[in-house]
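I am writing to request your help with a piece of structural work I have in hand. Here, with my thanks, is the record as I have it:
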Amino acid sequence: MSYNVNEKGYYGDFGGAFIPEMLYPNIEELRQNYLKIMAEPDFQKEFNQLLKDYVGRPSPLYFAKRLSEKYNTKIYLKREDLNHTGAHKVNNTIGQILLAKRLGKTRIIAETGAGQHGVATATVCALMGIECVVYMGEVDIARQAPNVARMKMLGAEVRPALSGSRTLKDATNEAMRDWINNPVDTHYIVGSVVGPHPYPDMVARFQSIVSEEIQWQLKEQEGTSKPNFLIACVGGGSNAAGTYFHYLDDESVKIIAVEAAGKGVDTGESAATSVLGKEGIIHGSKTLLMQTSDGQITEPYSISAGLDYPGVGPMHANLYKTGRAEFIAITDDEAMEAGLELSKLEGIIPAIETSHAFAVFNYKKFDSDDIIVVNLSGRGDKDLDTYINHFDL
């Protein structure tokens, strides 16, 4: 059985393109061209060159000695926090801007929650001299002020989403409306493995550089390219998709996906889609989705601005339903403690999204000879205010 996308754009029961007729030409243009363009030697050359010289790849695979000693197992950190812009998001935005240019697009739109994808999109638009509009929920604009300032410095226009919970899903809605109104000249750089096909697959492929590097880096350090466990946090799930990509069909490598339980999965303030979600359609794809009994999307909550999405990408929905991945929901408090612990043990301050992944070590026991790779998907400078307030620092 394959856990990759099929030719119809589905991962098992999940995926597809459920889109308004107005968006059909845009999506179809992408679907027909994305694999062809990505395979072109000149695209590959430019993409890899920018990843190397601009992003600073390969990102290190770092053996976390003190963390490993504490939990009596072998823990490696894939240091996506060291990328230019401070997270994994830039791998995808570079790929998509190169694709957009080859499709003749002259304007870019994006949505953002924590602001990391917005910053990464604004960055590549500045690099290429292309107009950029980023939609961001009003609530997220307030709690991620440093990233808003970065986007503006990079020349992007940040437009607030004022509807609903005024967070990530609402920003996505606004971006989709914009795209419907500007179908010819605009490319929508989706930030995660969500949305209609081909986005989940396209974003996963651009992020697959992460697992591609893990394979050879682990071989160098441990003599095997296969870890026992891969761990990543999942909101929409792009950093997780990139971490798992080259290992999806190798079931000897176990996969752990970590979601935001918020204040607890039973509190009504959570974003743990695997626990609370039912099959439904959001933003153009069929997936697991938090919704009321009559199908209205319920408001997600998490202390981290990047994990409070009411669904997961279709790849992850399929990994959950088939049992290929183990899903663990971590509360705000557990994530914050894990972030503080990593800071004190390894001298690395992680993004709060990423901190959720590190809380797994208090949740689950590993063997002393297990090799575990955690995707350290983002750095925590954007979250310092939240850390300061939480711990009274």
